[in-house]
Amino acid sequence: MRSQSLHSTRRKVLSGLVALAASSIYPLESLASDKQKTTYQTTNFSQDSDEVLLARMLFGEARDRSELEKVAIAYTAINRSQDRKKWNGESLREAMLKPYQYSCFNYNDSNRKKLMNPEKYEPQAFQECLNIARKVLAGKYRDPTNGATHYYNPDVMSKPSWANKMQKIGRIKISEKEFSKHEFYREF
């Protein structure tokens, strides 16, 4: 019985040494087999981390905008979650998923389907949004909106009624000759 146990232990050690030797000869293949690709396909946004949910929101609201404009839009959700107004949500997740706040999450919005599986539609754009969300949440960007909680794109829709009840911050300067497509507002 004891010799079987010793034999089994030797076999495990030998197997481990072979695997170690193989990984030093073919290190990239070894790592690739251990690493699973993250999928961002979902049917339930409530299962997402704040980072992934913010990336989805940026993808749905601003995937074709500049990096700075995406940062500005991300900060509207952060500012809402920190403004101590219950109707805006008391957490980042709540602020983003409140009904009719960020249109991309609305059931009737054409972007919602894309949010459910963004890598199917525009994988590079989603990865960029994910990277920006990660950096915003890590504090690597400052708020370019001066505390904005709302925005809209005047090229896409007429001025919403809520804008008349808020302080207009305006468009964000993207470069020397370019401004954001979105106009930003802050609640009084």
Please describe what this structure looks like:
This protein is mainly α and 188 residues long. The chain has two domains: 2-34; 45-186, no CATH class. Helix content is 48%, strand content 6%. The protein is built from eight helices and three strands; from the N terminus they run ααααααααβββ. It has helices spanning 2-25, 27-34, 50-62, 67-81, 92-97, 111-116, 118-121, 123-137; strands spanning 150-152, 167-170, 183-186. The chain has a three-stranded antiparallel β-sheet with strand order 1-3-2, covered by helices on one side. The protein is globular. The model is unreliable at 5-10 and 12-35 (pLDDT under 50).
Strand content is 5-15%
pLDDT below 50 for ≥5 consecutive residues: which ranges?
5-10, 12-35
Lateral strand order in the biggest sheet: 1-3-2
How many β-strand runs?
3
Largest sheet: 3 strands, antiparallel
**How many domain units?**
2
Number of helices: 8
Give the helix proportion (percent range).
40-55%
Mean pLDDT: 85
Cα gyration radius (Å): 24 Å
Instruction: Return the structural class.
Output: mainly alpha
- Beginning-to-end CA distance, first to last residue: 80 Å
